[in-house]
What does this fold into?
Amino acid sequence: MSHKTGNCAGFTILELLVSIGIFVVILMAMASFSTLLIRTNTANEVRNAAIRAALAKLHKAELLQFSSDPSDSSGFFLIRDSSVAYSIAYTSSSPASNIKKIDETISYNYKGKSLSFTLSTIVLKP
It folds into this structure.
């Protein structure tokens, strides 16, 4: 008696396990990349909020022109339901009698890191 082995459709258990393993590795890589993107996006949102706060204060300092020096300030901005404290320090100098240079340094903490940057502008006496 002979048995005919026909062409069986389907996958073997080994093929299924290998394909599931490859799929899991790809999903893990995508999850890791997504987490990195979210962290980077949030850090950029915090930096952009700090820049907006600094530019608003710098614009006020430009409007004061030569009448008075701006004062240091501090405050908070909200990013994704969390509050981030910042402080702004001003220094000004007059390289010439009709020029005033204003430097503004904004400092803030994000995820335990102290970050800061400086914006500068020159105001001409009208």
User: Anything to note?
Assistant: The helical segments are 13-64. The two ends are 110 Å apart (CA to CA). The first helix runs from residue 13 to 64. The chain has one domain: 13-124.
